[in-house]
Every structure is written in C-alpha cells, then in structure tokens.
Amino acid sequence: MAPILDDRSLEFISRSPEQTRRLGARLGQLLQGGEVICLEGSLGAGKTVIAQGIGRGWGAVGRLVSPSFVLVREHRRPTGHQRLLHADFYRLEQAQEVWGLGLQEWMEDPAVVVLIEWPERAPEVLPQERLWIRLEFAEETRRRLLFTAEGASYLALLRAFRRAAFGV
Ligand SMILES: Nc1ncnc2c1ncn2[C@@H]1O[C@H](COP(=O)(O)OP(=O)(O)OP(=O)(O)O)[C@@H](O)[C@H]1O
Ligand SMILES: [Mg+2]
C-alpha cells in the first residue's frame, strides 16, 4: 500500500523492521550522491533501522550501526570514492557542533550521501532541499512512514522511489 498523499509526499505502513529495511534499500539503490535525507521520529521509531536499509541499498560495506554516541559515522563501498555519512543529532549540545564535525562540507559534496537522525535538533544547519522521512510508532511492530520531498531534485527522487518500490 502506497497512498500518494500529494505530488511531494508518500505514506507507507511498515509491519516489521525488515520491511522498513527493504523499503530503505529501495531508496538507497537510487542515491547518486549529494542527497541529504532527514530521519525524524521519536526514540525507537526506526530511524536507524531505515538507515540500515538505505545503507544496504547504497552498497555500504558492513551494516550501519547507530551513530548516537559518536554523532557521525562514515561508510564506504567496496570500491570508489563515494561516501555515506550517517549522523545523529540527538546528543548535540548546540547546532554549531555540526560545523566542527565537518558535516556542512559533506552536505555540499556531490559524492556524499548524508543521513541525519534527529535533524530537528539543528534545523538551522539543514539544507532547504532534502528528503524528509518521518517515522511514527503505530504499534509494537507497525510504523507509519511519511516521505516528503523538498526541492525539485527530491521530487524526482521520490517519483523514482515510488516507481521502484510500488510500481506506480
Ligand atoms: N516496522 C518496524 N520498522 C522499524 N523498526 C521496527 C519496526 N517494528 C519494530 N521495530 C523495532 O523498533 C526499534 C527501532 O529502533 P531504532 O534504533 O531504529 O530507532 P531510532 O528511531 O533510531 O531510535 P533512536 O532515537 O534511539 O536513535 C528496533 O528495535 C526495531 O526492531
Ligand atoms: Mg537511532
């Protein structure tokens, strides 16, 4: 089920962590580099789980683990210079710390995909154009996922994702 809410949004109900990972992998396969993907949701909503799927689809070596304590983890593929950065802003004391992490430069690098958990902790450092994924806890193993494209290139990405994942 993939209700199309409007041109720039897509909603999905996931019934298991693996389903969330598979959906993430479909998205990860489409990433070219240069994308910023914000993962919003309460503790345990599934932000790291979908990030794992995105990493798997993108082709990361090894599995993504939560970057909560280190704030940011860098992942690579077996070959090539592309990178995937997985950040978690939960423990940020202040938004300026993001500059110290060098994330600002990474977010402007066309060879880098950036995933951010708890993006709302530092809204001022986020680019205006991004894919926003909101995960809501429905039941023990059910999550509502809401994808929203912000910016023309993300609209195109969301359309491609809809086709790849749901064939519509
Ligand atoms: N449908 C589902 N999709 C994703 N995760 C699910 C689902 N059902 C159950 N879960 C469970 O919910 C938990 C989600 O944990 P996860 O670490 O991804 O949360 P998080 O949003 O990253 O939290 P935090 O804010 O602590 O980083 C996992 O234990 C996972 O197994
Ligand atoms: Mg997490």
What are the SSEs and their pairings?
Layout: E1 9-14, H1 17-28, E2 36-40, H2 47-58, E3 72-76, E4 83-88, H3 97-101, H4 103-107, E5 112-117, E6 130-139, E7 142-150, H5 152-166
Parallel strand pairs: 2-5, 2-6, 4-5
Antiparallel strand pairs: 1-7, 3-4, 6-7
Strand content: 25-35%
The CATH homology group name: P-loop containing nucleotide triphosphate hydrolases
Helix content percent band: 25-40%
Number of helices: 5
Spell out which ligands are present: adenosine-5'-triphosphate, magnesium ion
Q: Architecture, according to CATH?
A: 3-Layer(aba) Sandwich
Please, how many domains?
1
Radius of gyration of CA atoms, rounded to a whole number: 15 Å
Oligomeric assembly: single chain
Shape descriptor reads: globular
Low-confidence stretches at least 5 residues in length (pLDDT < 50)? none
Please provide the count of β strands.
7
- Biggest β-sheet: strands ordered side by side in the sheet: 1-7-6-2-5-4-3
State the secondary-structure class: alpha/beta
Major sheet summary line: 7 strands, mixed
CATH class division: Alpha Beta
CATH T-level fold name: Rossmann fold
